[in-house]
Amino acid sequence: MQQPLKLYNTLSRQKDLFEPLNAPYVGMYVCGPTVYNYVHLGNVRTFLTFDSLFRYLTHIGYKVRYVRNITDVGHLVGDGDDGEDKIGRMAKLERLEPMEIVQRYTNDFRQVMRAFNILPPSIEPTATGHLIEQIEAVRTLLDKGLAYESNGSVYFNISEYNQQGNEYGKLSGRVLDDLLNETRELDGQAEKRSPLDFAIWKRAAPEHIMQWDSPWGKGFPGWHLECTCMSSKYLGRQFDIHGGGMDLKFPHHECEIAQGRGLTGEEPVRYWMHSNMLTVNGQKMSKSLGNSFLPNELFAGSHPLLEQAYSPMTVRFFMLQSQYRSTLDFSNEALKAAQKGYRRLANGLRIIKTLEFADVEGVTTDEKKKADIEKSIQAFYDAMNDDLNTAVAIASLFNLLKYVNMIYMNQLAPAAIGADTFGQLKEKFVAFMEEVLGLTEEPSESDAVLNGMLTLYREYKEEKQYDKVDQIRSYFKTQGLVIKDMKHRIDWAYEE
Ligand code: AMP
Ligand code: ZN
């Protein structure tokens, strides 16, 4: 069932009703990582935002082609038009082939994405795999008079672009005069007609390791052009959603719009979405500021700012507890609270999978509870439809959890809410957790081992061998689990 989804569109500066160009198909492009270093937790937040969107769109019935690239050339230190290539620089430092750097950090990126249960995209193109398309695009922009060659580099001509009736700056709200005042005199700007112009092809100095032949001599593509070429190749000249972190709005995405419009005359993207930053003590988490954590440091608890280890699902839950457009500040307290909250939900997920409907005669229907369950399910959808408000959606999931626990504790008979509502509760709770929010966690021991240990626990208890009983309890505790010894059953659960 497709839902009336509203998404905040950076371009229109409001929540727009999402109407794909060609429903039920949706085309979505997200700027992927520049693979010159390990991904930090800030990067994870952005990829998680778009994973939630990908999952939700799929859940409500769309067929999504999700393209997320790998930037393996052209992204320069300082994000501008001059300086070393981030990957080339690492290759020199480590005395490796650039492609060894690319492979190493692409492997790391994929492993981190898997750890957080972030789904792989439908297509994961690399910039170096699309040089022909980029050279072709440079040629077209030159033909249209929207670019000029200067000393072996090719620059996009902003003033010509604006004269042709376009508006550079409309996405980020930047005003050209302000931009001109902000721009410092940098090396290489002498090549440009205006400091606002940006490189779409750069001449490579002889020592620059990553370079290719082109009609303008040996060089490499501009970072902004890569995304334009890869998105349009797989999604068409106009497509539905383009995403990335807030810090990419300008200049990267602004330049993508200019290139797309310049190439085709069409607005390339219908919905521009930007995820807010993960901060540490109010400062953007970034490698250059030295305040970033690597996911592995988090899982091991091995960073000086961390008081303990946190599991990938705890961190995923922590991030989903805030809507993607609000900033999210990292703190041990917030993560500890997230661990507790997440484990309560994980217990609910385990429990509900074991609950079955039983039609007991003589049970009166509890209309109030039945209606509240139905309302909470709808509230989850309403929250997600309201620009992917995962924070509010999670609150309705906790409301549903209350009923799961009541049934488990024999305080509410499934018959009292009827087969339909019970079926909905079970189906939606599992789908919201696993499919939409991507929250699943397996204990380190398998279910079979844990159940075997529970059988022993029962036997030792009957035989009154309490030292053995305590040993089993302690073992569960080392695994972050507790034995729940209830009147009607013995079970295990995640320690909350
Ligand atoms: P990069 O590899 O530097 O191009 O970054 C990959 C993605 O992570 C981009 O979409 C960035 O906007 C995003 N990103 C970088 N730092 C943060 C942060 N602290 N919080 C959220 N997203 C970030
Ligand atoms: Zn990009």
Describe the structure.
This protein is α/β, with parallel strands linked by helices and 496 residues long. The chain folds into three domains: 16-275, Rossmann fold (3-Layer(aba) Sandwich), CATH 3.40.50; 304-436, Isoleucyl-tRNA Synthetase, Domain 1; 447-494, no CATH class. Helices cover 46% and strands 14% of the residues. The protein has helices at 41-59, 86-94, 98-115, 131-143, 158-163, 176-182, 223-235, 249-264, 295-300, 312-320, 332-354, 367-385, 390-408, 414-436, 447-462, 466-478; strands spanning 6-9, 14-17, 25-30, 63-68, 147-150, 153-156, 198-203, 219-221, 239-245, 269-275, 278-280, 283-284, 328-330, 481-485, 490-494. The protein has a four-stranded parallel β-sheet, with helices on both faces. The protein has a four-stranded antiparallel β-sheet with strand order 5-6-7-8. A three-stranded mixed β-sheet has the order 12-11-13. A hairpin with a 4-residue loop joins β14 (481-485) and β15. α2 (86-94) packs across α3, α7 (223-235) crosses α8 and α13 (390-408) crosses α14 (414-436). The model has no long low-confidence stretch (mean pLDDT 93). Zinc ion binds at residues 31, 227, 252.
Task: Using the 3D structure, state the CATH architecture of the largest domain.
Answer: 3-Layer(aba) Sandwich
Specify the CATH homologous superfamily of the largest domain. Answer: HUPs
Number of strands: 15
Q: Describe the sheet with the most strands.
A: 4 strands, parallel
Number of domains: 3
Mean pLDDT: 93
As a percent range, the share of strand residues is 5-15%
Poorly predicted runs are: none
Number of helices: 16
Question: What is the alpha-carbon Rg in Å?
Answer: 27 Å
- Termini separation (Å)? 35 Å
The residue fraction in helices comes out at: 40-55%
Task: Fill in the CATH topology of the largest domain.
Answer: Rossmann fold
Strand numbers in spatial order across the main sheet: 4-3-9-10
CATH class of the largest domain: Alpha Beta
Distinct small-molecule ligands in the complex = adenosine monophosphate, zinc ion
Structural class: alpha/beta
Cα shape = elongated
